[in-house]
Amino acid sequence: MAKDQDALTAAQFGAHAQAYVQSAVHAGGADLAALTALAAKAAPARALDLGTGGGHVVYALAGAAGAVTAVDLSADMLAAVAAEAERRGLSNVETVQASAETLPFPEARFDFLASRFSAHHWRDAPAGLRQARRVLRKGAPAVFIDIVSPGAAALDTHLQAVELLRDVSHVRDYSVAEWRAMLRDAGFAVERCETWRLRMDFAVWTARIGTPAPLAEAIRLLQHKAAAEIRDHFEIEDDGSFQLDAAMFLAVASEG
Ligand SMILES: C[S@@+](CC[C@H](N)C(=O)[O-])C[C@H]1O[C@@H](n2cnc3c(N)ncnc32)[C@H](O)[C@@H]1O
User: Fold this and answer.
1) Is the pLDDT of residue 142 over 70?
2) What percent of the chain has pLDDT above 70?
3) 55 C-alpha vs ligand 1 centroid, how far in Å?
4) CA angle 213–218–223, rounded 5-degree value
5) 13 CB near ligand 1 (under 6 Å)
6) For position 54, what pLDDT does the model report?
7) Ligand 1: nearest atom to the Cα of 145
8) Going by C-beta distance under 8 Å and a sequence separation of 6 or more, which residues neighbour residue 78?
9) Measuring from atom 10 of ligand 1, which residue has the nearest CA?
10) What is the pLDDT of residues 187-241, one digit of tens each?
11) Ligand 1 in contact with 53 (CB < 6 A)?
12) For ligand 1, mutation pick of 36, 121, 144 (most atoms within 8 Å of CB)
């Protein structure tokens, strides 16, 4: 029987938990450094990381916050994060298995929130963002980082297609405009948005989530047959490596 969306996502990631703990793309980046600096400035009592994956945001927040709560759909991912936090000597990290859309916390529980490279996997991103706002104290900082769609229809279609072929649980890479609207509707005021590009090494990108070989070949065929504008935008290389657009939204919990 087919799994529902949350179970499919949890299974996809759970099977590759260690790959995400070890992933160089996730463990580094100027965005993670900026997030760490913001957390250090805010010095929150309770910070929340939504869609914690290999836990790189949690490890960064643990030095700045009184306590950090890591939320993820995947129990395997959370077990890997708990083990890594212990290995690093971080004693203020708790893990909670939940979906972003149904957070098991009271209102205004947290005074800092981060979510990095996760919301494009959520079955209902607007609902997850409303939950994020609900559990955050008014005026608290929230940092959302994700892969974004370039917006233009043909580029968007190509991006969602290769993402879905790579990971059958892919939901949607939203454009910056879509992100801004979702954040506003959820009760966040965006103070700053920064964008950059991330090079995906094709072999590493597909191995990390275990893309079956025929689907990886289908991505290569799509790339090969793509229009010049698409090849140019994503800077597709001979081995299939390419550039993704990413964005960081620095927001404040405003309404409510
Ligand atoms: C790419 S990983 C996150 C990377 C991590 N935040 C980092 O910075 O290294 C995506 C994670 O989001 C989780 N996820 C996907 N959908 C979710 C949802 N609806 N609620 C909570 N977690 C979710 C997946 O299980 C996966 O572990």
Assistant:
1) yes
2) 100
3) 9
4) 125
5) yes
6) 95
7) 8
8) 52, 70, 72, 95, 96, 97
9) 118
10) 999 999 999 999 999 999 999 999 999 999 999 999 999 999 999 999 999 999 9
11) yes
12) 121
The answer to whether domain 5-150+172-211+244-253 has CATH 3.40.50.150 is yes
pLDDT value of position 256: 60
Q: Is the dihedral of CA 30, 34, 35, 40 positive or negative?
A: positive
Ligand 1 pocket, 115 CB below 6 A? Answer: no
Edge-to-edge, what's the strand order for the sheet holding 93-97? 93-97, 67-72, 46-50, 112-116, 141-148, 242-253, 188-200
**Number of C-beta neighbours around residue 50 at 10 A:** 27
The sign of the CA dihedral 159, 162, 165, 169 is negative
- Tell me: the pLDDT tens digits for 56-104? 999 999 999 999 999 999 999 999 999 999 999 999 999 999 999 999 9
The residue contributing the CA closest to ligand 1 atom 17 is 122
Nearest CA to ligand 1 atom 5: 53
DSSP 8-state class, residue 89? T
Of residues 7, 11, 35, the one with CA closest to residue 115: 35
Please tell me the distance between residue 229's alpha carbon and the centre of ligand 1 in angstroms. Answer: 31
* Domain boundaries of the chain, sorted by first residue: 5-150+172-211+244-253
The type of residue at 56 is H
Structure token pair of residue 191: 């103070």
Looking at per-residue pLDDT, the higher value among 29 and 213 belongs to 213
